[in-house]
Each structure stands twice: as C-alpha cells, then as structure tokens.
Task: inverse folding
C-alpha cells in the first residue's frame, strides 16, 4: 500500500521560507520568539567534572577532571571519537546524570533536568502519540500556559522551523529531517538558556543535514541562546560553532580547542575554503592521534 | 535459490497456453486461474471455510459418524442447534442469562483492568515492586480458574463475588503482563525528553508512560476480555440460576445437548465481540498508533 504521506524530498518543500528568511532576518515579524528571552544568560561552567558510568565492577570513568567555560550565547561544539564521553558530558549538563565536581549554569549548580536546559536527541524522541503541535506545545503545557496561548505560540514556532501545514501530523508521518525540525521547535519554545544537542542531525542524509545546519544557524541568530552541540562530524562542528572542543578518548578530557572564527551568516561554500580546510586538517590530526587502536 | 528458476516459473504461469489444439489444457488453465482468483477474495474464502466446517459437522452428526477415538453419535447437528438457539432467543430467561453473565465478566474485567494496569506500571517502573509483587503473582498465574472454585466459595461472602473473582483472575494476568511489557519497552529518551521539557514526576506518568505503554495495555485488555469470558463457564458452575455459563452447564446435566452448543456459541460470540470492542475503543483513543501500524 502506498504511504499516505508524500516522499521525504517532497516534504522538504516547505523549507523555502527559511532559505529566504535568513536573507532578511526580520525578528519583528515573530515578536514573541525574541521578546521574552533574558539577554546575557546561559553561561556554563564545568569545574573538575568527573562522571562515572555503570555500577560495581563494570563501572568506568567516562569523563575525568574536565574543566571549561562556555559564555552566554556561545555556540560550542564538542568533537570527539565515538564513545569518548561527549554525550555523557551533555547528560550531566542536562541534569540526567550525576557528576562529581561542579556543573554550573549561570553560577547555580545543576541538580536535575530543567526547562532552562533544553535537550535535543539524534532521532525518535518526539512523542509519537502527540501531533507536531502537541509536541511543540508540550513544554508550555508543563508550565501551565493556557490552551489557546499554547497553540498560538506553538504554531509560531512551527512556522519558524518551516513546518507550516504539518501541525496536525503525527511524527510517524514526517521524514527524519522534519522530525528534527519539530524537535528543535519543541525545545526552543520555552526559551531555554542553554540548548544541548546530542548529534541531532546524525541520522539524516547529507543534503538534509546541510539544510538543517543552516536552519539551526538562522534560528540561533534570532534566539540568543547558548548551544552545546555534540558531534563526530568535523565539517559540522567547524561550520556551526564559535569554538570546537576536541575531546580525547576515555576517560574524556578536552585536549584541544579550535576557534573557527568565520564570519556569520555562514554559507555551505565555506566548507571548501582554505581556512576551513586548514582547521579541518588540525581536527583530523587530533582525532587520528586520540582514536583507540583498531581491534581485529 | 537460483533467481532464474523463479523467472522461468513466472513466465510459464503468465504465458497464454499454446493454441496448438490443446483445448483441454487451456480449459484446465482457465479453471486454475479462476480458482486462483477466488483464493485472492479473502472474505469469500473465509466465509466458505466456516461454511465448510459447519457442513462437515452437519454430515458427521446426521450420520452419527464414529471414528473410534471420536464419535459424533450424541453430538447435536447444526440444524438442531439453530432450532434450540431460536428457542433460547425467545425464552423469557434470555435477558437474565445474558445480563448476569455480562455483569460478572465486566465486573471481573474492570477490577482486573484497574489492578493489572496499576501493578503492571509499578512493576515496570520500580525494581522493588517487581521483587515484591512478581514472584507471588507468577506462582498464582498457572493455577486454572477451576482449581480456585472451592477457595473462592470459602473466601467470599456471596457466590456472586466468587464468580466475579474467577472472571477477574482470568483477565488479570494478560493485562498485567502486557502492561509490564509496555512499560519496559518504552524508549528511555522519551522520559528524559519530557523531564527536560519541565514535566513533573506525575506528568511523566500521565504524558509519557501511560500513552507510551498504551498499545501494549490495549492488547492486554483485549486478550484479558477474551480470557475473562473463557473463565465464565467455570465461574458459573457456582451459579444457582442464571448466566450463559450456567445455562451451558445445566443443559449438560439435563441432557439437552443442543442447548450446550447454543451456550458455547453464545459465549464465543460475546467473547469475540467484547474483545473486538475493547480493541476498537483502544484504537479510537490512539489514532497515532493506527497510523503507525498502517504504514509499518
């Protein structure tokens, strides 16, 4: 039976409003997106953070004595080989994993999950039993925002990520890229100080991933928030971030910092420029050194 | 398998029969195609299958077929059953029989639903609940309803309650086990996402765990509804006057063999109808699930 939903590439059609949007980022047309955000918040301080995973004899140190500071409104990527503890670190900042040392957001220690620290996963973490609208409005519902206001603001954010016309679709009716758009809208709607992204575009095909990276940068330009973005894709890290923290293999430490200070707004052509390639080579060299020896 | 074999076979089937005077063969082919077409009309096939079984039963009963291990000498023929069913439909006691049975089944099923879902969620969520509740329940599970009759009579003040207890036992375990399964199988990230979006402890249960385990719970309820009817005859062995199960049992004592089958058919029909009802109500409450199963 043919699926009742058009093929993914057709579904990507509503993307154009975004492509045009960054040409003239009119923040005024979407007032509530920027209005309620408090400026200058979202600084992350990690001091001597160690995280132990597992229990008993099987436990191991996933992150060891890690310290760093991320400024409010900064876009930081953590780049490292698979299993280096970068997702674990994200979990600690989100408040889902207990950590030794100090994890501070705006000077206050993280004690548990909170709306002010939004979390975006790789895929399939939308609630399948809620429509796009229901998913995006979820954070507001938890905050006790009345139904009508919830709906209006959710529709606004659905427009913002280019999902207009899909508000009443269920996640299973959307392509992977569209699901991630909804996921981003769901997290941003509560105006978190910090957005934590765990390989959010890892499951998407190359073209779709590029579109989503641009979308993320456009959205971030409008909503001033700190983004901590975990990836193992060098191009992605360099293209998106203000700073790339290179993490070594278990136990995870930050061994090197690269600052891709390319001007914004950034375009996909950037990845072929000489400076970009120079940074990329440094990242590659680092990853090659730190990667665990391949086992037969 | 060699794919060329398949294509050769397919070609043989689709090629028209050679017209070189093979009239009989062409006739066979046409007949074969007609049968193949008929087999594809699934509803016709299903109806024909049921009709065939009833036809065989009629033949066996009418001719008192004795196969040694099994004899149809005393089995009422379908025509006798239809006549007895017609009488049953017009008997003054019909409403009492059906009403009593429906009440017993639904009371037991309702109690099993509440307890089964409640304990299932607790067992699925908390290790200590699993340790405390699961071992005794696993011990009780294999004990059939019939074995409970004496104790049920001793434990409850009225025979009505004893009967409800037995239909309750019938429904409890499928509901309980499916609920546990549903809660266990829930993607942990959905809960993490909900917590990060500001969901409180109770909101996680209401918004994530209950809907997430929903499809499994509905399956459990539909099976439990069936097994509750399954236990009805057992339960109504205790009954003094009314109930479809009682009617079936009483007919045996009074040697009204056709009535036994009427009771059996009635229980089967009610059991199936109420299972389908539960499933349909469940699907109506979970439009997202219907979409997913249709696509997947």
Result:
């Amino acid at each position: 039976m043919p699926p009742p939903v058009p093929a993914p590439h057709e579904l990507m059609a509503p993307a154009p409003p975004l492509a045009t949007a960054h040409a003239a980022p009119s923040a005024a047309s979407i007032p509530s997106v920027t209005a309620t955000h408090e400026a200058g918040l979202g600084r992350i301080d990690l001091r001597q953070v160690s995280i132990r995973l597992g229990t008993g004899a099987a436990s191991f140190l996933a992150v060891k004595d890690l310290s760093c500071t991320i400024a409010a409104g900064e876009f930081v990527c953590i780049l490292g080989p698979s299993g280096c503890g970068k997702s674990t670190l994200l979990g600690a900042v989100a408040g889902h994993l207990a950590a030794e040392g100090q994890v501070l957001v705006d000077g206050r220690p993280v004690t548990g999950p909170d709306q002010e620290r939004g979390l975006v996963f790789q895929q399939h973490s939308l609630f399948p039993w809620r429509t796009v609208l229901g998913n995006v409005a979820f954070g507001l519902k938890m905050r006790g925002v009345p139904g009508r206001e919830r709906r209006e603001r959710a529709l606004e954010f659905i427009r913002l990520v280019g999902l207009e016309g899909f508000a009443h679709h269920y996640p299973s009716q959307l392509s992977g890229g569209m699901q991630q758009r909804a996921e981003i809208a769901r997290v941003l709607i509560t105006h978190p100080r910090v957005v934590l992204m765990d390989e959010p575009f890892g499951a998407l095909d190359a073209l779709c991933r590029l579109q989503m990276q641009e979308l993320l940068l456009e959205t971030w330009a409008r909503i001033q928030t700190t983004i901590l973005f975990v990836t193992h894709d060098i191009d992605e890290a360099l293209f998106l971030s203000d700073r790339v923290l290179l993490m070594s293999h278990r136990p995870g430490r930050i061994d090197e910092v690269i600052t891709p200070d390319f001007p914004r707004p950034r375009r996909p052509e950037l990845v072929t420029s000489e400076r970009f390639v120079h940074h990329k080579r440094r990242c590659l060299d680092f990853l090659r050194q730190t990667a665990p020896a391949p086992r037969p | 398998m060699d794919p060329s074999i398949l294509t050769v076979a397919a070609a043989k089937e689709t090629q028209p029969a050679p017209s070189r005077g093979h009239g009989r063969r062409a006739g066979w082919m046409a007949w074969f195609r007609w049968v193949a077409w008929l087999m594809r009309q699934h509803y016709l096939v299903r109806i024909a299958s049921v009709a065939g079984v009833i036809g065989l039963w009629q033949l066996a009963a009418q001719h008192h077929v004795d196969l040694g291990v099994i004899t149809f000498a005393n089995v009422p023929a379908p025509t006798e059953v239809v006549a007895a069913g017609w009488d049953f439909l017009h008997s003054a006691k019909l409403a009492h029989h059906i009403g009593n049975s429906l009440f017993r089944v639904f009371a037991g099923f309702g109690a099993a639903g509440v307890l089964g879902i409640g304990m299932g969620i607790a067992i699925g969520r908390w290790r200590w609940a699993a340790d405390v509740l699961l071992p005794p329940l696993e011990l009780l599970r294999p004990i059939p309803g019939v074995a409970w009759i004496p104790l049920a009579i001793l434990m409850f003040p009225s025979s009505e309650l004893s009967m409800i207890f037995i239909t309750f036992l019938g429904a409890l375990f499928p509901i309980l086990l499916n609920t546990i399964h549903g809660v266990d199988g829930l993607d942990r990230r959905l809960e993490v996402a909900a917590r990060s979006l500001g969901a409180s402890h109770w909101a996680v249960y209401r918004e994530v765990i209950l809907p997430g385990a929903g499809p499994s719970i509905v399956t459990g309820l539909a099976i439990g509804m069936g097994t509750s009817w399954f236990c009805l005859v057992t339960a109504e062995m205790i009954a003094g006057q009314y109930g479809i199960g009682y009617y079936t049992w009483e007919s045996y004592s009074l040697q009204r063999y056709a009535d036994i089958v009427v009771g059996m058919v009635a229980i089967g029909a009610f059991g199936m109808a109420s299972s389908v009802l539960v499933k349909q109500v469940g699907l109506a409450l979970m439009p997202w699930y219907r979409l997913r199963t249709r696509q997947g």
